Structures are given as structure tokens and as C-alpha cells.
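Hi R.,

Here's the chain you asked about this morning:
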Amino acid sequence: MSNTIITFELATHHLSRIALTIEQMYQTIEEASKETHPLIHRYALDNLADLLVIVEKPELKSRFLKELVRIEHQLSKK
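And the predicted structure, written out as C-alpha cells:
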């Protein structure tokens, strides 16, 4: 076991939950693009708008980037 301490401003489950939400929205949009019903397209557009709101938050961009850099560093050590 290593003696490394990792400190996060947000709980790690918060970033995971956001990442899963983004992935679910993306999959919904992708599946809806193959459909023809207008209500499905409307739902996909709503998801797209919500996705853009989430993605454009600068604090989330920064936290995700820091987490990805940390993971990349850990992988490069091995």
C-alpha cells in the first residue's frame, strides 16, 4: 500500500456522477439521431442543451482536467 494522499475539493463521487450523466446524455443523443419521431428529437435537443450547460462550466473543466492529468501521471508511472 502506498503512502500517497489524494485531496479533492469535491468528493470523488461527484465527478463520477457528472461523468456518468454526461455519458448517458451523449448516448441518448446518439440513439435519438437514428430515430424519426419528432418527440424523440425534441428530447434529444433538450439533452443536448443540458449537456452544453454542464460542459461549459469552467470549474468542472478544471476539475476534470486535473483528474485526467492525475490519472495519466499514475498510468505513466506503471
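The helical segments are 12-32, 38-55, 58-77.

Let me know if you need anything else.
M.
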